[in-house]
From TrEMBL:
Keywords assigned: Cell membrane, Membrane, Transmembrane, Transmembrane helix
Chain intervals with Low complexity compositional bias: 396-406
Record-given protein name: FtsX-like permease family protein
UniProt topology in membrane: Multi-pass membrane protein
UniProt region (Disordered), positions on chain: 396-436
InterPro entries, A to Z: ABC3_permease_C, Lipoprotein-release_system
Signal peptide coordinates: none
Cellular localisation: Cell membrane
Record keyword Transmembrane helix present: yes
Length: 820
């Protein structure tokens, strides 16, 4: 290596260190002089990191969730039917118990590695109050194990052991049986094995617990049981002709945490639904968070446009400016993001507790495991990266100096030259210094607006891009009309996101258009303050557009989310009132198969089993066919599902019951009120054998998914409202030089207050109306596609949304101006 190259490398290293040092000095200086703006950014980044951290923990916890092992905790191996149904590679969990032949227990007793085999079956014992009690054989209690608290085990057919939860003392009588003991465990009546077989069915059992011989490990026991089942060709209890082609009927051998799948059948479907819910919500959270941070950071750095332009003029290199801006932004964002991540853990633990408790009622365990706790650190890193990326464009385009007054006409974003305020200036008001509004408004237009730089108005290219994005959003909303159910909801949600992005691109142009439309009434009603508001808005329409966009976001998001849920509830309640009720109806789910873009899909639908007596009190709103023909081998289909399946009266549908049994049924009627009654109506007698407990009363709707969805919408809306307040606060703080100059040229405090109030009113009203307009198209498309009715938003929710936006706008626009 030559001496020249060494010296060149040394100079390059010193230059790099010099540039880094200059960037650090400039960043520290900017942080000192822009403290109020960066404090607002700190709070917004903290809230964003906190929300993203909570969602990261929620997604991780749900992903790690599994059906809880409780009733079979003492059995290392459990044999059960395959509680999933299959279709060309797709699979779905079953919601009704698929049983296995009782003879499988005798088969396993002959396996040398097996010490004891306990068959378990659950059934319902009728009670005088009509509700009944769950019943099980007493020997199955040792699989938990649950022991006696007092009394003795049942020995005769007329004796039972009651669990402590039933609060039945020894000697009491229940459902014709005498209580001889009290045991641990959930609400259950325990019977002798012969009596349990008589009540629950001698030919089938729910599951079989297998206990090992001395010295046999769980792995060896599982292998031996699997081999015995395969050798015997043991399958589930369905008839061969009722088993779908892809369902082999092979029995499953469960160990470890997998044993929970044999206990609570509702746990796996709930787990899948929660995972899908949080996956969809997470995408929305990331979109909202990214838009919030981008808008806020851009506005915080826009105040430094003149300063950055000056640095460029005196020789600062683009790399130095980018390093300065990124260092400045990340210096604020890093501690805020880390603090938000740290707070996410206790906040999530507190809020997640009721979710865990409610999921446990259906047997789903959602534990917060220690290795999931670092998840918020990842979202904190993403938050800091988003802040750095949002800061780069501001460094690359520092702005241009304002043109001197009189150098040429200045065009507004609407394409029109501004009104010459000197032509008809309003009289000066008491409290000012007597200067005209023309002079007060003209001075900042030429001199202020962020330390000497004027933002460019919306370019034609940006306007065309914004209109194109809005068109894409409208097209997405239009496709929702032609899609059923979930497809319509997904298309409507995508339309909102796309249209909000279009409004972001068109923000300055929209602001200029609104000011042009409202200029005359604002000047007339607001006097000098109104004149000032119009002049300032036209001088910096980009600022006004940036203030409007977060309000559009929160309004559109809240209206679509709240309106969709409220519309479904409203339409369901209307249909339920019109349809009436039936005492003996049997509620369950059925499955259908289809292809989507060439991939197999299994859909689950609510169904109702009815009798001829039930149909006398029900009015499903028949549109074709005759419900009087409903009986074995037939089905009635809701209009939406009939359209999706391409089925009509006389056609044959292939369905799978909740236990996976396949049936070919002839359509005898098509009805309208499927939201209240379910997608299918079937004969109760034909449906009952495929329901785990046909005599059980319908379980109350736990509504966990809806509660979580509502909470998520509230959290995202709160973040968007914080973005509104933060953005307006940063804008107001950055306009301190402007307000000071207006005071020096004669504007009074009252006139400046009126100016700020008028601007806040324009921002709030425009954002609300534009957000409602953005939400109206996709929400209407969704409502007509899925409900065949106009959308519904309760007046109370609408009023709360308007009040929240107005108060937030006022807080962000007016309160910072009161502080010196």
């Amino acid at each position: 290596m030559t001496g020249d190259s060494v010296r060149s490398g040394a100079r390059g290293a010193r230059g790099a260190r010099g540039r880094a040092g200059a960037a650090a000095v400039l960043a520290r200086a900017a942080l000192r002089h822009q403290r109020r703006s960066w404090r607002t950014v700190f709070v917004a980044v903290l809230a964003t990191s906190l929300l993203l951290g909570c969602f990261a923990l929620a997604v991780t916890t749900v992903a790690l969730g599994r059906p809880a092992v409780e009733r079979y905790a003492a059995a290392p191996v459990v044999v059960t039917a395959d509680q999933t149904t299959h279709h060309r590679g797709a699979h779905a969990p079953l919601t009704e118990r698929l049983r296995i032949p009782a003879g499988v227990a005798d088969l396993l007793r002959s396996v040398p590695e097996v010490a004891r085999v306990v068959a378990d079956r659950e059934f319902r014992v009728p009670a005088d109050d009509g509700t009944g009690y769950p019943g099980r054989p007493w020997e199955a209690a040792e699989l938990a194990p649950w022991g006696l608290r007092e009394g003795r085990a049942p020995e005769a057919a007329g004796e039972v052991v009651a669990s402590a939860e039933l609060d039945l003392p020894v000697g009491a009588r229940v459902a014709g049986y005498r209580v001889v003991g009290v045991a641990d465990g959930p609400a259950t009546l325990w019977f002798t094995a012969p009596e349990a077989a008589r009540l629950g069915g001698r030919d089938t059992v729910d599951a079989i617990g297998v206990l090992p011989a001395p010295g046999v490990s769980t792995g060896a026991l599982s292998t031996a049981v699997r081999a015995a089942l395969d050798t015997a060709g043991a399958v589930d209890a369905r008839a061969a002709g009722e088993r779908p082609a892809d369902d082999t009927g092979e029995l499953r051998v469960l160990t470890g945490d997998g044993r929970g799948a044999a206990e609570a059948l509702g746990a796996t479907p709930l787990w899948r639904d929660l995972l899908a819910l949080f996956g969809a919500i997470s995408g929305t959270v990331l979109m909202v968070a990214g838009l919030v941070l981008a808008t806020l950071i851009t506005r915080a750095l826009r105040h430094r446009a003149g300063e950055l332009a000056l640095l460029r003029a005196v020789g600062a290199q683009p790399g130095q400016l980018r390093a300065t801006v990124c260092r400045e932004a990340t210096t604020v964002a890093l501690p805020a993001a880390l603090l938000g991540a740290a707070l996410a853990v206790p906040v999530f633990a507190l809020l997640w507790r009721p979710v865990t408790a409610q999921a446990a009622t259906v047997g789903l365990g959602l534990p917060v495991v220690p290795w999931a706790l670092p998840a918020p650190l990842l979202t904190a890193a993403l938050t800091v990266a988003a802040v750095a990326l949002a800061a780069l464009p501001a460094a690359g385009a520092p702005g241009r100096p304002a043109a001197p007054r009189g150098s040429g006409k200045r065009q507004t974003p609407g394409g029109r030259a501004p009104d010459r305020c000197a032509a008809t200036p309003p009289p000066a008001r008491p409290g000012g210094t007597g200067a005209s509004a023309c002079g007060a408004a003209a001075a900042p237009a030429a001199s202020v607006g962020g330390s000497g730089g004027q933002p460019r108005p919306a370019s034609a290219g940006r306007r065309i891009a914004g209109l194109g994005v809005l068109g894409l959003g409208a097209a997405s909303a239009g496709t929702a009309v032609a899609l059923p159910g979930d497809g319509a909801a997904a298309a409507a949600g995508a339309a909102v996101v796309v249209m909000v992005i279009g409004c972001t691109l068109l923000g300055p142009w929209i602001a200029g258009w609104v000011l042009g439309l409202l200029a005359r009434p604002l000047r007339r009603l607001g006097g000098v303050g109104g004149w000032l508001a119009v002049a300032q808005g036209r001088a910096d329409s980009a600022r006004l557009g940036a203030a409007i966009v977060p309000i559009v976001l929160v309004t559109a998001f809240a209206v679509v989310q709240l309106g969709a849920d409220a519309s479904v509830r409203h339409a369901t309640a209307q249909q339920a009132r019109a349809a009436g009720s039936a005492e003996g109806a049997l509620a369950t789910t059925v499955l259908t198969t289809r292809s989507e873009l060439g991939d197999p899909v299994i859909d689950r639908h609510p169904a109702l089993g009815v009798t001829a007596e039930d149909l006398r009190t029900l009015d499903p709103g028949v549109r074709a066919g005759d419900l009087g023909a409903l009986g074995p081998g037939t089905v009635a289909v809701g209009t939406d599902r009939a359209r999706a399946l391409g089925a009509g009266v006389g056609d044959t549908l292939t369905l799978r019951y909740g236990d996976g049994t396949e049936a070919r049924l002839r359509v005898v009627a098509v009805y309208e009120r499927s939201l209240a009654l379910g997608a299918f109506l079937l004969d109760r007698g034909q449906l009952a054998p495929h329901v785990s407990d046909p005599d059980a009363p319908p379980a109350p709707d736990q509504d966990l998914e809806r509660r979580l969805s509502t909470a998520a919408v509230a959290a995202i809306a709160a973040l968007a409202l914080l973005a509104v307040c933060s953005t307006l606060t940063v804008i107001t703080v950055g306009r301190r030089p402007e307000r000071a100059l207006l005071r020096r040229v004669g504007a009074g405090r009252g006139q400046l207050g009126t100016m700020l109030a008028v601007e806040a009113a324009v921002v709030a009203v425009t954002g609300l109306l534009l957000g409602a307009a953005v939400a109206a198209l996709p929400l209407t498309a969704f409502s007509w596609a899925t409900l065949h009715a106009p959308p519904h938003l309760p007046p109370g929710q609408a009023a709360a949304l308007v009040a929240a936006v107005v108060l937030t706008t006022a807080a962000g626009s007016l309160l910072p101006a009161l502080r010196r």
